[in-house]
Amino acid sequence: MNLKKLERLGSIAQEMTDNGFVAGVSCMVIHHGEEQCYYEAGYRDISAGLKMTRDTIHRLYSMTKPITAAAVMILLEEGRIDLLDHVSDYLPGFRNQYVLEQGVAVPVTRPMTIHNLLNMTSGLVYLGENNPAEVRSERLIEEVKGKLLTDQALTTVEIANRVGQLPLAFAPGESWQYGLSADILGAVVEVVSGMRFGEFLAKRIFEPLGMKDTAFYVERDKQVRLSKVYRETDSGLAEETGCHLGIQNKMELQPAYESGGAGLCSTIDDYAKFTQMLLGHGTYRGAEILTPHTVKYMTTAHITSAQRRGMETWESLAGYSYGNLMRIMTEPEEAVYMGSRGEYGWDGWLGPYMMNDPVNDMTLLVMQQKCDSGTTTYTRRMRNVVFAALEE
């Protein structure tokens, strides 16, 4: 790679903090297993004057999802689950699912499967007001938040069974909609493995890869490294202290609810180990997490053209399909930024971003903690810089 061209990433990171778009940001590029560059700018904690560092711990939110998919793939390759298994085989709350049509509960004719959950074709949704499914999901998450820091906190499996009793936005398999599917997969992993989801992740993924700072909470001696969360206001960035999607803000307690869709914290170096395991066909520095065939399946698109129409409102996903809780680039010529066919990854609510490109054996990671971020204009600009820096 042209390292001189990659210096533009540092300029973009500095611009993001100088203009108040974020409090702090870091980014990293890895090519053929070697770190090409790392840049940081701004602060992880403005009021305390603590600068962004590469050991800063970030809430991943939806960048938790690829890790959850990897956990499911472990069970898949061990023959412990079948992707056409009904979710109700593991979680009884999913036995009598229905769609509301003009206020009438209409039972679904097709049971929800693990395959539906992995590909966001389950009919489960996130919070909102567009349909009864979103409204009822919001009520449940508000209940979860209300009990979050009490001794009545709902567990991963309890919440999943409650979700199973909510109306669906559509019958399983009919469309694609982003929602709570990954959280249900975390509960399935718990039931199948016989251990807490976080324990399974630690034993089967984090410890073998040396991801020592990745978990569903941040221990007391590491709290000083946890970034604050910021929200954009009319007067600039302000610290956000509320809980989003039932995830504690301070991340200081081991939670009863280990959210497979949003609950993990990590550092940029820890997450890089996970990305390199995937680019290494399931193995990183001698630790085999998955087999090459499993990784190939995990990083391949699995939704139909009809289901893919549900993604059309996501402007940044032009040129992408979806599979196993990740975007998969299938038509680079339709994308709104540079990329390669087969590139995959995801982002999070606070702006962390992962991109793996198997064609060029390359990773881009971005870490930040600003509400309602996802993929931003700066993320797209960084991607373009990285692909422009590739040399034949």
Folded structure, characterized:
- The protein is of the alpha+beta class and 392 residues long.
- The chain has two domains: 3-73 and 198-388, DD-peptidase/beta-lactamase superfamily (Beta-lactamase); 77-195, no CATH class.
- Helices cover 30% and strands 18% of the residues.
- The chain is built from eleven helices and 16 strands.
- An eight-stranded antiparallel beta sheet has the order 3-2-1-16-15-14-13-12, with helices on both faces.
- Helix 2 (65-77) runs parallel beside helix 6 (181-193), helix 2 (65-77) packs across helix 7 and helix 5 (156-163) packs across helix 6.
As laid out across the biggest beta sheet, the strand order is 3-2-1-16-15-14-13-12
Give the SSE string: HEEEEHEEHHHHHEEEHEEHHEEEEEH
Broad shape? globular
Distance from first to last alpha carbon: 9 Å
Question: What fraction strand?
Answer: 15-25%
Return the CATH architecture of the largest domain. 3-Layer(aba) Sandwich
What is the CATH domain class of the largest domain?
Answer: Alpha Beta
Mean pLDDT across residues: 97
